[in-house]
Design goal:
- The structure is a single chain.
- The protein is mainly α.
- The chain contains 9 helices and no strands.
- The protein has 2 domains: 71 residues, no CATH class; 163 residues, Tetracycline Repressor, domain 2 (Orthogonal Bundle).
- Helix 4 runs antiparallel to helix 5, helix 5 packs parallel to helix 8 and helix 8 packs antiparallel against helix 9.
Length: 244
């Protein structure tokens, strides 16, 4: 091989690499487009009313192209739900990292959670408001969406934040208690979000301000009950009875 041929070979390899990179980038961009379009469709419809053909028509591709990325409509819905939770989890983890005080961290995590859904109502609807049974939401391998790694990771952010809040007050609790309190806070947050989405004609007051009012009162109540528990013989052990 001559000195002249070597640059051509290297140049050819570079072009092939760049071509493959462009192809991968194009595939990723198309996948993102499919997910974004499916999210909007599922937010306004159901698993029964939304079709792969409808999504394909909306993005200007064939149904076969969409099926190459997501072989079934259920897998596409589950991918949308997973992406929604990944976006939320990443945002909440950034908030946790920015707040060193455990009580402020818990408040900001819940406030950010509400803010995210207020800013992205189509994400909320496609994730939580879909009609259908639990069986409709099971992956082909038998795992339910609520049992997936991303679902557990998202919930654990709240459980960990609550556990840190309890520990900062000097309380000694069980993981089950942190889960119960985290579930209570999440239930309140979901009510704040879903009420205006489910009844838009009511023209309710500012959702963010309402959310902060609910969250602040709940966390203040937890702190007050922890203060009262310090005067009991069981302290620092606390249980669900402490908060009832």
């Amino acid at each position: 091989m001559t000195d002249v041929e070597q640059p051509k070979t290297a140049q050819g390899s570079t072009r092939r690499f760049q071509h493959r990179a462009r192809q991968e980038a194009d595939k990723q961009a198309l996948r993102v487009l499919i997910l974004e379009t499916a999210r909007r469709e599922f937010a306004s419809g159901t698993l029964d009313t939304v079709s792969i053909q409808r999504i394909a028509d909306a993005i200007g591709y064939s149904k076969g192209t969409v099926l190459k990325y997501f072989p079934t409509k259920l897998l596409l819905l589950l991918a949308v739900k997973q992406q929604n939770l990944e976006d939320v989890a990443e945002r909440l983890e950034r908030v946790r990292a920015r707040n060193s005080d455990s009580e402020a961290r818990l408040r900001r995590v819940l406030e950010t959670y509400i803010d995210y859904w207020v800013d992205n109502p189509d994400h909320f609807r496609s994730l939580y408001s879909m009609a259908g049974t639990v069986e409709d939401r099971r992956f082909p391998d038998g795992v339910y969406f609520g049992q997936t790694a991303i679902a557990r990771r998202s919930f654990e952010i709240f459980v960990t934040s609550v556990a840190e809040f309890l520990a900062s007050h000097g309380a000694r609790s069980t993981p089950a208690l942190a889960q119960r309190l985290a579930t209570a806070l999440l239930s309140a947050a979901h009510g704040v979000i879903s009420l205006p989405l489910g009844t838009p004609t009511m023209q309710l007051p500012d959702v963010r301000a309402t959310g902060r009012l609910v969250i602040e009162n709940l966390i203040d109540s937890f702190a007050t009950k922890l203060g009262a528990a310090r005067n009991t013989a069981e302290w620092p052990r606390v249980s669900i009875n402490t908060f009832q």
